[in-house]
Specification:
Distance between the termini: 29 Å
Strand content: 5-15%
Number of strands: 3
Largest sheet: 3 strands, antiparallel
Strand order of the largest sheet: 1-2-3
Helix content: 25-40%
Order of helices and strands: HHHEEEHHH
Shape: globular
Length: about 140
């Protein structure tokens, strides 16, 4: 019971709000639908952004970012629980205090730093991204 509660609490704290099966990928927030936290859409080269950190798999990073934001580093989504995901890697607002002084990480550099922290919290894996299963990267660097 205690282990299960801990797992559920960790999932809530990290803002995991949806599960995607290993066979499907849902591009989440390419158009900023219903959210203006970071301003209008602004696109970047995902490969270049992912290569700024060498501690993860380039291919997993590219797949996650592609399916989370479509390369829109201003991508934004308001979740059903009221939290907000922003940026290339869709960092959840529940994490902003721990990675960006409570501010939305709307630029590539701050979103990258937050994504690295979430990646590290997941044991240097992508398991805290809802798209990791479809990318085949949940247990991967």
């Amino acid at each position: 019971k205690t282990t299960m509660r801990s797992v559920l609490l960790l999932a809530c704290v990290l803002g995991l709000t949806s599960l995607v099966s290993a066979n499907e990928l849902i591009p989440h927030n390419e158009t900023n639908s219903g959210c203006s936290t970071c301003g209008g859409a602004s696109y970047t080269d995902i490969s270049s952004a992912c290569s700024r950190y060498s501690g993860w798999s380039q291919s997993c990073c590219e797949c996650i970012a592609q399916h989370e934001s479509g390369g829109n580093y201003h991508a934004c989504n308001v979740n059903s629980n009221g939290s907000t995901d922003v940026g290339l890697w869709q960092v959840n607002s529940m994490n902003w205090a721990s990675c960006n002084s409570g501010n939305p990480p709307c630029d590539i550099s701050s979103n990258l730093q937050c994504a690295i922290k979430v990646f590290n919290w997941g044991g240097n894996t992508w398991k805290y991204w809802s798209t990791c299963g479809g990318c085949g990267c949940c247990g991967s660097r």
